[in-house]
Design goal:
Layout lengths: L2 E7 L12 E7 L8 E9 L4 H4 L19 E9 L9 E5 L5 E4 L5 E3 L16 H14 L6 E4 L5 H12 L3 E6 L2 H9 L5 E4 L5 H8 L4 E6 L3 H8 L2 E9 L20 H4 L3 E4 L9 H13 L7 E5 L4 H10 L5 E5 L4
Parallel strand pairs: 8-9, 8-11, 9-10, 11-12, 12-13, 14-15
Antiparallel strand pairs: 1-2, 3-4, 3-6, 3-15, 4-5, 5-7
Bound molecules: NADP nicotinamide-adenine-dinucleotide phosphate (NAP).
Length: 336
């Protein structure tokens, strides 16, 4: 029987996540009981809201207990099964955790099939929750019209980079906000953004004013905080502000920055709506088949940032929370 290297939560971060907030442990890999299967974890996708799972709990409102295994969405392959719905060789996506093997009854798991023309890792971003987030955030809440000015924050990230491109394909003039010159260059040279703002180097309100002379028709918010506030200050009549994420605030637990410019929503008769992608789970196939076709035709690009080995999972989380990642942050767990 093989060993299962896994990470547990050792302590709660005070603000920034530190490597010492986690402990790597090893156990014997368990055998599945009746109704269960054993899956080998192939990939993990490491995303910013995992930070909230360490303290305030985020949308689940339940922080991971100290000493418990660290959560994470991943892609696994069934290697042993005593559950009639799962056969050896099936690929599954779900809460696999920061570990090499997981035992499951199948609750919360989704069986998936890779597209032959795309790498299996794409099931964790453009053909996963990130892709669905960009797709439903745009079609259900942003509702782009030709000629709209669309501003996107964390624009070079997993969700943001897809939103920028979907907006451009639907006729928007897209302004991306990201945290490095290299990311800004990718946005304008490769993804078709009209302008890119480096929020770590530029004066964001000033640059937004230059880049959006007719105001912002759609702001797709991945970060919250001062960038959300600056965008609210520039919304156009009838604007749609789509609240997707608040990455700049996840380290602050319950002490979030409140936007001062929210009353512009009244002046501009605009709307601001939050959404949760898993409310659209029954339509993921629609999103994924459209996105896959766009990738296959070369109209949609994505970037992956891959760290090899389960031992690098904490580093992956620190990277997404500091912007060191370039593209979707993945950990390749299985070596074959
Ligand atoms: N509502 C939903 O259903 C839903 C579903 C999926 C994801 N989300 C949210 O969508 C957002 C994006 O997720 P993702 O998986 O695509 O992650 P991501 O954008 O690939 O990675 C996070 C990025 O956020 C940026 N960032 C980190 N700290 C920041 C700060 N203090 N201020 C501004 N930007 C900062 C970094 O890029 P820079 O280098 O540009 O700083 C980093 O690369 C997250 O907030 C996530 O919680 C929501």
């Amino acid at each position: 029987m093989s060993q299962n290297d896994h990470w547990t939560v050792a302590s709660r971060p005070e603000a920034e996540v530190q490597p010492g907030n986690f402990t790597m442990e090893t156990e014997e890999t368990a055998s599945p009981a009746d109704g269960e299967f054993l899956a080998e974890v192939r990939w993990l996708v490491v995303t910013p809201p995992l930070r909230m799972a360490l303290t305030s709990g985020g949308i689940s409102r339940r922080p991971i207990p100290i000493g418990a295994k660290m959560r994470s969405t991943g892609l696994g392959r069934v290697v042993e099964s005593r559950n009639p719905d799962y056969a050896v060789g099936d690929l599954v996506i779900g809460e696999l955790g920061w570990q090499q093997f997981t035992i499951s009854k199948g609750t919360g798991m989704r069986k998936v099939r890779p597209r032959l023309d795309l790498p299996e890792s794409s099931l964790l971003h453009v053909l996963g929750a990130g892709g669905a987030t960009a797709y439903f955030g745009m079609c259900e809440y942003a509702r782009p019209r030709i000629g709209d000015t669309l501003v996107v924050s964390a624009a070079a990230g997993n969700v943001g980079s897809l939103v920028c491109q979907l907006g451009r394909l639907q006729g928007c003039r897209v302004v991306g906000i990201a945290g490095s010159a290299e990311k800004c260059q990718w946005l304008t040279k490769e993804l078709g953004c009209a302008e890119a703002i480096n929020y770590k180097a530029d004066n964001v309100p000033e640059r937004l004013q230059q880049a959006c002379p007719r105001g912002i028709d759609i702001y797709f918010d991945n970060v919250g905080g001062e960038i959300l506030d600056a965008c609210l200050g520039l919304i156009a009549q009838g604007a749609r502000v789509v609240l997707c994420g608040g990455t700049s605030q996840y380290n602050h637990d319950l002490d979030w920055y409140g936007p001062k410019n929210y009353f512009n929503l009244v002046y501009k008769q605009a709307e601001m709506t939050g959404f949760y992608v898993f409310n659209f789970s029954n339509r993921f196939e629609e999103a994924h088949s459209r996105l896959a076709n766009l990738v296959a035709s070369g109209e949609l690009k994505y970037a992956e940032d891959v760290l090899e080995g389960i031992e690098r999972a904490p580093e992956a989380l620190i990277r997404v929370l500091t912007g060191a990642n370039f593209g979707t942050q993945l950990v390749k767990v299985a070596t074959h």
